[in-house]
Amino acid sequence: MRLLRADLPQGDLYAFRGTEGKVCFILTRGVELCPNSASAGEPGVNWATSGGSPGEDAALVALIADNVSSVDLIAGDARTPVPIINNSIYASLPKLSQDPHFFFLSVSYRDGSQTELPLPNPYAG
After folding, report:
1. Residue numbers of the domain that contains 75
2. Does residue 7 belong to any structural domain of this protein?
C-alpha cells in the first residue's frame, strides 16, 4: 500500500494493487475504488466522488496516469486547476448548485488532446 496524500479533509489517500493487477485506491474517511481495469472509465483518470461527513463538502478523488498533463475542475462557470500530486488529485466539491450537470473534469493530455468528463453532482435533488 502506498500513501499518495495525507491530511486531506476526508482522510489519507492510498493506492494499492488489487487482485488480477487492478490498481485500487482508498480515501480513509471517504471512498474506495478498485476498477476492473486500468483503462476503465476515461483514459488516464480513475475517479470517484465521496459524499463526506455531515457538514463537509463532498470531494472528487482520482488516480491520474503519467500521460495526463493537467486537470481542471469546472463548477458552473468557474474553472479551477487541480494539482496532480503523486499521480492523484483531490478537490472539494462545494455545495453551489443542485443542477445534476454542474460539475465537470477537464483533462489535458501530454499529446495535446483534451476531454471533459461529466461528474455526478452529489447535491442534485
Report:
1. 2-119
2. yes
Cα–Cα distance, 48 to 30 (Å, whole number): 10
42-64 pLDDT tens trace? 778 988 888 867 778 889 999 99
The Cα 97–Cα 87 span in angstroms is 29
User: What is the pLDDT at residue 34?
Assistant: 86
Residue 124 counted as domain residue: no
Per the listing, cell 475504488 goes with 33
| CA dist., res. 4 & res. 14, Å (int) | 5
The CATH number covering residue 12 comes to 2.60.40
Which residues in the chain show pLDDT less than 50? none
